[in-house]
Amino acid sequence: MEKRSDYKTALLIEAAIHEAQEERRSPARALAALGVPFDVAMRVLTRPDERRHVVPPPRSAGAQG
Length: 65
What we know:
Elements: H1 3-22, H2 27-33, H3 38-46
């Protein structure tokens, strides 16, 4: 796979997982709706430490820093 395309795909997967968690939806269903292959979804959901690009959690509006 082309590196640039792979990078963008990884970011989209992370964003979908993060958004689903915020909305209290199933990250697996969100990935399936996007057409993410089952083996890729299983890898990113069961081995989060091996993800290529982890999106940090959003800072709360009341947090200072």
